[in-house]
């Protein structure tokens, strides 16, 4: 099945917000072997909406529309859709009730524009929105399905997971799809591609390999598609084992996961605890760990000793060390990691210290100079980095490499 | 001038990565009064690239293409572009030198696919890429300008800022554009729209008002466009003053800024210091502050007392308080904020504690229950929230409302 994603709203075209919805939808639809033929962002005008619905229906069987259902007055989506489908808008009592209770629960006065959230296309199937006031709508026209959803990401995701996927699953019973994912780290995309070139060239047309790279990790996803479930399952697993063998020095996980979720699972499994001592990453490392459910099982907490004073106060970093080597040095990184591990009685501790920029650089320590230390059960490992990017990218690279180093020490100490 | 943004690459269409480039480009081009007529994401195929370049040239004068210039083998962009422009690819020595030194600096072996990064369109103006190996290319055809850039965000931004904007600035000298932005907080989008409806209706066609909302803050941007700079400047400032007066209880800043940058500027200006004690936000609050240059001026550092043990150890929260009221309570939030302020000798301290979910909820404290406390120079204020979203949204709402509370106490204590 072919699908197209249309994002409605000037806010996208004038760059007010980033469209995170389309990627999420695309990634989810892949699991149903639905190919996205195009993603289009259009303005909040009747002409653009009408014409794009029309042209999309020529390319795709399933048209997913997000945005243009908010309360502010510039939303013409519903009226244009009514015109496109040759129907009208009716106020749905069940939705109105939901909207009303939504406002009552928050002790908020309800305005007319809020009541209008309960106006839906007369010929639609309402996709009830538990998380917000704008309901989703499913309309079928000439064997094409149109699904309208609010643009607020967690509301859209809720509607897709609870209302839309079950409908799609029913329709794609005939073809069997199997995915296998491998998480690798410590190797660049071009080297990885070179490393597995021959295996990739061997792939039959029924199996696709996708690279899902981040700044320090790459997820490799094999997607097999066939009418024979047994065959494709076996074949995908065969190529997965080839990749696992070839990449054994880089493989972190042989299933679909993130480095953060993987580390939390491993630490939990081994009954290990972790703390973080972040100077240059400023809390983003802990934030990326605690974004995962279950992180409290292994993460006792962390510190952000941004100033030298707090490096001493929180982690017992020696003043002489700071004076002699500076805050951005291997010695300071080591004392931060060791201090954090000892102070908070954990099995592992990560420490980051560096110059994220744009200021703070010097001749011998230019912007992008970073030291990471990881203290484990038996030893402390350190690594120096010289990044050459803007502040946010330097922080993100530091965060990811810190997680990579933690993983490396973890498997080393397992042996 | 009209522009269109084309994002090339299967990785977008199959949802491997989120397209953050298009929004950033759109937001930047607004300042040059360049309207984005459409954003399109297409696959990495000759047919799609060729046809989309063609159709875009019918809609826009400036076509910005990102992606499809990476080292991995599936990139057909340059060859297709050569065909489209009726030219060939030549290996540029200057770029090759740059690529080579790029790899030497990192002690990395250079592969043939890396050398191919130096192949450029024979008829292009090279947009030199200081941050990466793939150069940008500018090609003019039939009064239309095509700009090819790598998809890596910080490389693309670097090329836009250093190479493209200067070119654009020259071309848009005739029309004068003036923007004024206001940052407001503590009011929902629909209420804000209602509050300023009459002012918005008064706006002349030469002035546009844009809402730039986040979960707890809204930036209002007035954009005036005219051939007479004096008039439009005066008129935009007139409407800005009307909005400032009407919204005086919600206005945080009368210029374009983020809440984080604003607070850092205010704290720096007043010589104040801040610390954070994050349980449920897990470091994201500190991360959002330290993402800003200059944050070290006011942020001495923070703690992430995820476990009850660390709440006691780091912030001297009383065991009796945790036993009697629980970790997620007003009393604990107060002791965390007061403890952080006292322990780290700062003027202000923010504390967050809550149940982000999906687990950990109970009958009297369901998932989404959050307490925030802010300790200031004279007093401690607290607020309870009952969010109803998934883990990440609950964390983000907590983070933003914590910043809002800090702002409220700051202006209260200024009076």
From TrEMBL, chains A, B:
Q: Which Pfam families match?
A: CinA, CinA_KH, MoCF_biosynth
Tell me which residues make up the MoaB/Mog domain: 4-171
The record's SUPFAM superfamilies line, in alphabetical order, gives: CinA-like (SSF142433), Molybdenum cofactor biosynthesis proteins (SSF53218)
Instruction: Give the InterPro entries listed for this entry.
Output: CinA, CinA-like_C, CinA_C, CinA_KH, Competence-induced_CinA, MoaB/Mog-like_dom_sf, MoaB/Mog_dom
Family stated for the protein in its record? Belongs to the CinA family.
The protein in question is named CinA-like protein
